[in-house]
TrEMBL record:
Domain Peptidase S24/S26A/S26B/S26C: 121-242
The organism's taxonomic lineage, starting at the top: Bacteria, Pseudomonadati, Pseudomonadota, Gammaproteobacteria, Enterobacterales
Species name: Klebsiella aerogenes (Enterobacter aerogenes)
Record-level Gene Ontology MF annotations: DNA binding
Pfam families (UniProt xref): Peptidase_S24
Protein name as annotated: LexA family transcriptional regulator
Length: 250
């Protein structure tokens, strides 16, 4: 456990090392100004924050903030002000003294937690092919596997385990073998949708992308190694894929 003196020394050591590593060619006053500009611009872009609101956030006046920012600032950001900004914005000690304005933005954004909208059964591809043709309702209570979804869909929806690599794409959208797809029979199959269909003479259903071009309809695999299948009355669309899960990630 570090005591207060040890913790302060540790923080100073860390940020001084970072300064010497990352800030070559820039004076400390320039680094602090660039970081302050980046902090304000980020909040302005994300929430429309005004300069007056940002000044209040870092516990200073709009006039003082204007003196710190701008192409020809009238004041430098001193040690006391730098630590004050770090405290107000919950930044680590010494953050203002290491250049951050040129960092790559994260490609991951947190969108919040979604509530589960329902749970649906996992059925076989043979059962999927007969789903809408069954004389009696499917006995759902006999099904052992059910998956949740955050998508609103009809009560007749069901999950399928993806088999084979025909929907595994080398680029763009890819649904690999072992994933699970949620199929809604009530969604209208439109051009570009991923669908589950049953071809005439086949016992099992198939999973492809529906392509409609000049009145002609095709079932297109996402994997370019597989051919497209033209359909002209010999195919029945069972449902549209509305959700997918990647299971058992290694």
């Amino acid at each position: 456990m570090l005591n207060t003196t040890q913790a302060t020394f540790s923080n100073l050591h860390i940020y001084r090392f970072a300064k010497s590593s990352n800030n070559a060619g820039m004076e400390n006053k320039e680094i602090r100004k660039a970081n302050l500009e980046a902090l304000y611009e980020k909040r302005q872009h994300e929430s429309g924050m005004t300069k007056a609101q940002f000044a209040e956030l870092i516990e200073t006046s709009p006039a003082a903030l204007s003196q710190l920012l701008g192409p020809t600032p009238h004041r430098n950001i001193g040690d006391k002000m730098a630590r004050k900004i770090e405290t107000a914005l919950d930044l680590p000690f010494g953050w203002m003294d290491v250049l951050h304005s040129n960092e790559e933005p994260s490609n991951v954004a947190f969108r919040g937690l979604n509530d589960t909208k329902g749970s649906y059964p996992v059925i076989s591809w043979v059962s999927a092919g007969q789903w809408m043709e069954a004389v009696e309702p499917y006995h759902r209570r006999a099904i052992d596997r059910w998956y949740d979804t955050t998508v609103i869909c009809s009560e007749d929806s069901f999950w399928l385990d993806v088999k084979g690599d025909s929907m595994t794409s080398p680029a763009g959208l890819s649904i690999p073998e072992g994933a699970a797809i949620l199929v809604d029979p009530e969604v209208e199959p439109r051009n570009g949708k991923l669908v589950v269909a049953k071809l005439e003479g086949d016992n099992e259903a198939t999973f492809k992308k529906l392509v409609i071009d000049a009145g002609r309809r095709f079932l297109k695999p996402l994997n370019p190694a597989y051919p497209m299948i033209e359909v002209n009355g010999n195919c029945k669309i069972i449902g549209v894929v509305v959700d997918a899960k990647i299971l058992n990630i290694p």
